[in-house]
Design a protein that fits this description.
Number of helices: 27
Largest sheet: 7 strands, mixed
Low-confidence stretches: 71-79, 420-428
Helix content: 40-55%
Shape: elongated
Structural class: alpha+beta
Mean pLDDT: 81
Oligomer: single chain
Distance between the termini: 44 Å
Radius of gyration: 34 Å
């Protein structure tokens, strides 16, 4: 142990003595470690770390799937629908044995009145069993009891620690008090712990309150999309020892029993391919982002390898300068093992110091990443640099330091003191093996730099394609805002419709406003509503479709500049007393009437199981009065092919009963020639003049909303470009270092060539030839590596192939130019060798 401590102290002295090398190596490795630490922290927090709930691996999500109906327009989801209905919950609750507990919940917006100042809370409406399932008790008060899941007894609320702190300054007396929510008093019964998180998709969705979910009689008996007046996420906790396969088997048996006992649903269930899915909650949360985060981690790891290779090359070159020191120690009795141990310890110390600096920089970089766009990933609120990251960094430092330290040991011969004295004053080489290793390391650097630079180039090209995508609407000059209308003030459809009509009139009166409207779902806001529809007169078959259902007021299409293809927009003539109408997208029109004019055609929206085969209720028929362009409603990269869903727009003034609860959260859209901040101020003033108790939230320009949908892709592109740029610089530095060392070693040869008449161009060509060979070998190796790893990036691209010839050619040209510049500096230095001085050296 004392020997190791002496080697450690000696290593510190050596590194301090050669500070130029030490600072260069530490800065290089620290930057590479920082990038890796920041990305690994995200990967660890989002993917690798178990859910923060007790025994979180036993939590599962159950959902109804209708693959024959194309119910989801997000083709990258491995499991389509994520919702179930109340009858499914009660069936699974009573007829399965693998679950310890089950719960249902959905997200909601609550308007809280604090001292006559309305505030918005992001809330979760959940069955009282949720807190038993989560197995996390409140820090203050109590959780809901089962009686509070009944109609008439549900006016209770639990607060998050943050909202309790913000609204009541952490006053314990808040428990038991009433809080006015959506115009009605709710009793505060408890406060959850500060770090409590339950399936919050993004940090912006952090739940601030919980209220009990009490099912109505209609909700308890209504099944499946379009018929049910509500849908919820259904979670369960498996019993200890129960497996997810056992749960799948019980759900399959339950589906079969329901199919046999419900003949009125058999046609629909058969055509839709209905089944109940189940998957771990953690898998549900991360399935979309896992490939992306692994891709980023691979890029950061490659950057770290490049940095390590660069330092290994420097260490190998530096070992030549230390021949005299090594030979002297050998002559004084130190054995080869002791020398090797010393070299390894020195580099481990170097790597640990670099890793420590990387942790500090990585912590800062992590904050920048989460504010720059990674706050949109699932479990973003849980991202933190923890002991796992620190231990992983320490292990990586030790392994990296050992590998770097073994390079000169493995590929440098141990010199004798006689060898050193014989070549005193002249350069001593490390032999052919050392040269081969140095050249091999450069080839590896160039290859990895090519792979990273190619990846960043492809992502840049992909992002440019996304920026050029036509989303189907114009965001220019449009401001959006959300408002929630409480049932206490607006109890029914008519009250909601009147309020929104007044709002639109008030918004249109603002100077400079050219159009205004209201909708329940904006592009890229993540709100989804679907409805079973099929051409009137045709029984439920494969011709049916479940398009996205969006409710709007007159003026919405004009405000968003969604182009009318044929027919007309929705307008004031479409009200409660007139026949139901709808405007549909081109893709929906092509799906139903590929050879006919869709204007005047009717769609049937079944409300009851009996209507699936026999559409008889005239109030459920919808006449198509217009066809509009396709809109990318989910994200800019959404696919618009023949199999994608379409959108059906219906008027607010002609509500379907099953969609009423969703219509209470309305999205205002205003187009104006006035700049954003001034327009937002005027919108707030006009809405306050109508109802001061309604706070506006999510106020932003439509351009901001569009940019927000690209935030994650932009972050990935910026990070990858950063990795590629750093890799390119490190590769160039590596080439420069090797060729500089080559010039130093061949200085005598160069002097002789100049003395014999060698020209500057001849000397430059001599040095460049070796550099070009290394670059060429690296490019070939990198191309092979990129071919093998192409699947890693294909999922991140849009409108660009993984082997786009333009991007590949640009990458090669850029890498060659940078590398050749790195070659030219030592090559030009070689031309300045003075043959007289060199040949007269002893």
């Amino acid at each position: 142990m004392n020997a190791l401590f002496r080697d450690f102290r000696y290593g510190l002295r050596v590194l301090w003595k050669d500070r130029r090398f030490s600072i260069t190596a530490i800065l290089t490795l620290a930057i590479c470690f920082a990038m890796n630490i920041a990305v690994f922290t995200v990967v660890n927090s989002v993917i690798l770390r178990p859910l923060s709930l007790p025994d979180g691996d036993r939590l599962v999500l159950m959902a109804n799937q209708y693959p024959g109906q194309n119910t989801v327009d997000r083709p990258n989801l491995s499991v389509g629908n994520i919702f179930s209905y109340a009858p499914d919950y009660f069936d699974r609750l009573g007829l399965t044995t693998v679950f310890e507990s089950q719960a249902m919940f959905t997200m909601a917006t609550l308007i809280v009145d604090i001292e006559n100042s309305p505030q918005r809370l992001q809330a979760m409406v959940a069955t009282p069993s949720l807190f038993r399932l989560a197995a996390v008790p409140p820090v203050l008060g109590r959780a809901f009891d089962e009686s509070e899941g009944q109609i008439g007894n549900e006016r209770k609320v639990m607060l998050s620690y943050g909202s309790w702190q913000r609204l009541f300054n952490r006053d314990p007396a808040a428990v038991g008090r009433d809080l006015r929510i959506n115009g009605r008093p709710y009793q505060i019964v408890g406060v959850m712990p500060q770090d409590f998180v339950f399936i919050n998709a993004r940090s912006g969705d952090r739940i601030e309150a919980w209220v009990p979910l009490a099912f109505t009689d209609a909700q308890r008996t209504s099944r499946h999309e379009s018929v049910a007046p509500g849908r919820w996420m259904h979670v369960g906790r498996l019993r200890p020892g129960a497996t997810i396969e056992q749960a799948r088997g019980q759900l399959r048996a339950l589906d079969a029993a329901n199919f046999a006992s419900q003949p009125e649903w058999q046609s629909f269930l058969t055509s839709s391919g209905f089944y109940s899915s189940i998957e771990p909650v953690q898998e549900f949360m991360i399935r979309e982002v896992r490939p992306t985060l692994y891709f980023l981690w691979a890029g950061a790891s490659l950057l770290l390898v490049i940095g390590g290779v660069n330092i290994a090359n420097l260490v190998l070159a530096r070992s030549t300068m230390r021949m005299k020191e090594v030979a002297t120690r050998l002559a004084l009795g130190a054995g080869p093992v002791r020398i090797a141990r010393q070299l390894v310890i020195e580099n481990v110390v170097l790597a640990v110091v670099s890793g420590t600096g990387g942790l500090l920089v990585g912590a800062w970089l992590l904050g920048a990443l989460t504010t720059f766009g990674l706050s949109q990933v699932p479990r973003a609120a849980e991202i933190r640099l923890d002991e796992v990251v620190v231990v992983w960094t320490l292990i990586a430092c030790v392994i990296g330091g050992v590998l770097i330290g073994l390079v000169p040991v493995a590929f440098s011969s141990m010199p004798t003191l006689a060898d050193v004295l014989r070549f005193e004053g002249r350069s001593i080489t490390t032999g052919r093996g050392g040269r081969v290793v140095r050249h091999g390391l450069i080839v590896v650097q160039v290859a990895l730099a090519f792979a990273l630079t190619l990846g960043s180039g492809l992502l840049i090209a992909s992002f440019r394609q996304l920026l050029n995508v036509d989303p189907g609407f114009s965001a220019e000059g449009v401001v959006t805002a959300a408002v929630t209308l409480p049932a206490s003030s607006y109890p029914d459809d008519r009250a909601v419709t009147r309020m929104l009509g007044r709002s639109v009139d008030a918004l249109r009166s603002i100077p400079g406003v050219t159009a205004a409207g209201v909708t329940d779902s904006l592009p890229f806001d993540g709100v989804s509503r679907f409805a079973i529809v099929f051409p009137d007169g045709v029984p439920q078959t494969q011709e049916s479709l479940v398009p996205r259902l969006i409710v709007t007021t007159p003026g919405y299409f004009e405000t968003m500049r969604i182009r009318l293809v044929r027919g007309r927009y929705l307008d004031e003539r479409d009200h409660e007393g007139t026949p139901r109408v709808a405007v549909i997208e081109e893709r929906l029109a092509r799906r139903f009437w590929p050879d006919r004019d869709p204007i005047g055609q009717t769609l049937y929206v079944p409300f009851e199981p009996s209507e699936m085969d026999k559409p008889t209720n005239p109030d459920h028929r919808v006449t198509v009065v217009g066809v509009v362009r396709n809109v990318r409603q989910w994200d800019v990269a959404g696919q618009l092919d023949a199999e994608s869903l379409g959108i059906m727009y219906t008027p607010y003034a002609q509500p379907f009963g099953f969609s009423f609860s969703h219509r209470r959260t309305a999205k205002l859209v205003v187009k104006s020639q006035t700049d954003g901040p001034e327009l937002i101020r005027r919108i707030r003033a006009e809405m306050a003049s109508i109802d001061a108790a309604l706070p506006l939230w999510d106020v932003r320009t439509m351009q901001e909303q569009t940019d927000r949908s690209l935030t994650t892709r932009r972050s990935i592109t910026v990070l990858t470009v950063t990795f590629g740029t750093l890799a390119l610089l490190l590769a160039a530095l590596g080439i420069y270092g090797v060729l500089s060392y080559l010039v130093a070693q061949r200085k005598r040869e160069v002097g002789i060539r100049i003395a014999l008449g060698g020209t500057a161009s001849h000397i430059i060509g001599l040095i460049l030839r070796e550099g070009v060979l290394l670059i060429a070998a690296g490019l070939v190796t990198g191309f092979v590596a990129a071919t093998v790893a192409r699947r890693l990036i294909e999922g991140e691209l849009y409108g660009v192939k993984s082997f786009d010839p333009t991007v590949i050619a640009s990458t090669i040209v850029m890498l060659v130019l940078v590398s050749l510049f790195a070659c030219l500096v030592p090559a030009r230095r070689a031309t300045r060798v003075d043959p007289v001085v060199v040949l007269n050296e002893p």
